Amino acid sequence: MATQHDIALTNALTGIPGPLPPSGVIHVAFPHANRFTIVGNHLAQHDGLSLTAIGIGVYIQSLPAGSQVGIKALAARFAEGETTIAAALRELETHGYLHRTRARLTNGRVVTRTVFCNQPDALLRERAMAPTRVAVPPMRTVEPAAPVSVAQAPVSAAAQAPMPVAAPVPVAAAPMSVAAAPMMTPAVPEPAPVPEEKPPPVRVPSRIAPKPPRRPLPQPRELTPELHRTASALLADLRRHAPELVLSEDDVEELTPGAAAWLERGAHPDAIRRALTTELPQPPKYPAKIVRHRLAVLLPPPLPGAQELAPARRTPVTPFQTCEGCDRAFRSPDPGHCRDCRARYWEAA
C-alpha cells in the first residue's frame, strides 16, 4: 500500500505546472466533490489565536446547525482536556468568532446559546455601513392650487371659503406668475449614515507565561588557583554521591566560578554537595543545567563579620529624681531640686 501511495504521489507531483519550490510545503490539491467546508485564511492563519483555538474553530464551522459544541462535548471528542478547550473557546470568543449567551426557555430551563460567525470583520462592516435611522417629525403639505386665468368664470361661494394656509415659504428673488406659483414644501435632506467605530483588535495573551530571565552564575571576588582547584574537584566528585550528575570537562570548567563563590562565602564542601545532589528530578535530562540553576538560586549570603555580630550599644537613659522642695519628678543624674525650685532659691539668694 505504501508503494502505491508513493507512486501516486510521484505522478501527482509531475503534473504540477511550473518548477517546484526548493524547500517548504508543496500542495497537491484535488477539488472536493462532497464533505468539505470553506474556511477563511483569517481563521486558519490567525496570528492571535493558538493552534488549539484554530482547530476547534475549524471543527465547529464544519458541524451542522444544532450540534453540541460545549466544553464537555468537545473534551469527549478530542484528546485535549477541558481546561485547554475552555481556554481555546475563550480565545475564539474574544476575537469575535464565538458568541455565547444564556437564554431561558419557556419551561424555565436556562441553556447556553452558541453562535459561530465565520467572518467577524464582515459582521462589523455591515453594522458600520447600516444607516442610522433618525426620526423626522411629519410636515404638513398643501396641494398646489390649480392655475387661475384672468378670463376664468366666476367662482362659486363654496370655492371662496377660506382655506388653510401652510407655513410661510421664502419667496424667490425673480417674480413668478400666478399660474407658476404653486406652494412648495422645503425638502428635508436625508441624514448621512454615521459609521460605527470599529473596536481595536484584542490580543489574547498567551497561555504560557514568559519565563523570567535566568540568573547569572555567581562569580567570586578573586578566583585564586587554590580556590579554583577546590571548586573544580568538588564538581567533578558529584557523580560519586549522585550517579545522575555526570558533568563533562567543559561543564566543570564553566561551573567552577559558581562553586568558588560558595566556598568564598564560607560554605562547607559537604553543604555544597548536599545542596547540589538532594531531591534531583528523575531522570535528570540536563545535569549541567541543574547544577548551574542550584548554584545561582541557592547561593548563601556572605558570613557576617565581627562588627555585624557585635551587640548594639544602648543609649544611656537619664533616671527620674524627686525634687526635695516640691516633690516633683524630674530627670537628672543626681538628686536635688527641680528647675523651678532652683530658680526660686537663686532669686532669694
TrEMBL record:
**Which domain of life, per UniProt?**
Bacteria
What protein is this chain from?
Helix-turn-helix domain-containing protein
- Region ranges (Disordered): 190-224
